[in-house]
Every structure is written in structure tokens, then in C-alpha cells.
Amino acid sequence: MNYEWYPGHMTKAIRMMKEEISLVDLIIELLDARAPLSSRNPDIDDLGKNKFRLVILNKSDLADKNVTDKWKDYFKEKGIAVITMDARNRGSVRVVDSTVKEVCKEKIERDRKRGIKNRPVRAMVCGIPNVGKSTFINSFVGKSMAKTGNKPGVTKGKQWIRLSDSIELLDTPGILWPKIGDEQVGMRLATLGTINDNILDTQELAVKLIDYLKESYPGVLAERFSLSESDGSIKILENIALNRKALKKGEEPDYEKGASYLIDDFRCGRLGHISLEGPISEDGKE
After folding, report:
1. What CA–CA distance (Å, rounded) separates 213 from 44?
2. Other CB atoms within 10 A of residue 151 CB
3. Which residues have CB under 8 Å from 233's CB, separation 6+?
4. For residue 185, pLDDT beyond 60
5. What domains appear along the chain, each with residue ranges and CATH number?
6. pLDDT tens digits, one per residue of 98-138
7. CA 120 to chain centre
8. DSSP state of 254
9. What do you get for the CA distance between the two ends of the chain, in Å?
10. Measured in whole angstroms, how far is the alpha carbon of residue 16 from the centre of its chain?
């Protein structure tokens, strides 16, 4: 399956971010808690050299908590501040203000010694498409400041947003990288909804998701769709279509609709708390 999706506005976005990076003190990188490594744009590390860093594992309410805890340890070991949240929940966003101040305490103290008071920390918010950047900003501000949507590519330009007396945010468009070389990374990104669904083979993606769930979360499909997981993945997809009464003329199962039901159930958390990857240890195991 082709996972490459790099529309023109992403090229403009990375150019803009390079131009604006000198103006910011901190990079806030939003990742999808269900696949933090796959949802990290490798270009951000180059962009963020010599800047304070904060990673937010968003959509943690949809992820496997045990796996998310391992990811928190993973980033902390790398010296990167990390917090988890559901950006739709304003209560979980409140911790960001105090965390930003802690991460940037050297900068704040440096300003104080120079006699500079009340200069806000300027942060660039980065992340791949559909990871929840705009939802995070709107929850933080308490009103709709950034456009949101449940499909990638909603934000296409920059905007500075004053969050409080102490923080200003630069919202940026979601950017992927031009070449996704790892098929597993591509599959995870597609499953999360990061890549435009219109270029994907939904049935193939659903079969790969079924394979993963059978191995890593046995029993989830059986409980959700009242089927046997001992069947092959194609048969399971057929049974999902039948369970959801997704039928073509002649009462034939509609595999395409069945695949869409499964993927949507995953994205919305109706299958339970599921993570698509865990941190890789030195011995190569998750």
C-alpha cells in the first residue's frame, strides 16, 4: 500500500517553521499516545536543536495505559519533558502551564537577572496531521482560536496565540515527512487517521489491523463483533461486515464498509484502550 501523502502546503509549512524558529524558546511536540515513535516527525529534532523541548502524548485516553507509562519513561530517559493528556478535556490541559514554566526555568531566570519582567515564553506547537494540535490550543485558551477537524490538513497556515501573561503559542500546520520508508510506520499512521483516507486501501489496512489486534489484544474483536478470532483475517473482516449489517445487493458482505467500521471503532476508542507500538529496548524488543 502507498502511504506517501505530502501535499504542497506541508513544504511551505516546514519552510515557515525554519524561518520562525529563532523567535521561539520552546518546542511543544504533540504525539499520538497510541504510536508515539511513529507519530514523531524526524525533522522536528533538527528544527529544535538548542531549544527547550516538551512532548505531549495526546489522546492518552485511547491508549493502553501500561504502554503509555513505558513511553513516558522512554522520553524522560532522553532528557525530554513529557506529559499525557486528552486535549478535549480542559482539566488535563491545565498542567501544561506549570510544565512549560518548569522546562523553561533557565530562560525565565535569565530574563529576571537581566531585569526583564513579564516576557512570555514563546512556544512553537508542532506535530503531524490530525494529532490534536488545534484542539489542544482551543482547550488551553478556553475558546475556539484554531480550526479543528477529524481529518488531516485542517490547519494550513501559522498563527500566534496569546495563552496567558506567561505563554504565547505559534500554531503550525501538521507536517509529515516526504518519504515514509518503514511500512509498519506507514500502517500505524494510516490507522491513526494521519494520512488522507482517500489514498488508502481501506480493506488492506483493516486486515493489517486485525492481524495486529489478534496478536497483541486477543479477545477484543471477539467481544466487539461477536465473532471467532480463530478464523483468518479476511474471514473476520467478512464477519465484521455481517455483524454491522454492511451488505451489498444479494446479501453479500460489503468488505469496504466492514473495514471502515473497524477502523472507525479503533480511532474512536470503541475497541478499548489500544496502543499500536511500545518503546524498543536495546535488545530490539518492545
Report:
1. 30
2. 12
3. 207, 210, 211, 214
4. yes
5. 8-171 (3.40.50.300), 201-268 (1.10.1580.10)
6. 899 899 999 989 988 999 887 889 998 888 888 988 888 88
7. 27
8. -
9. 25
10. 21
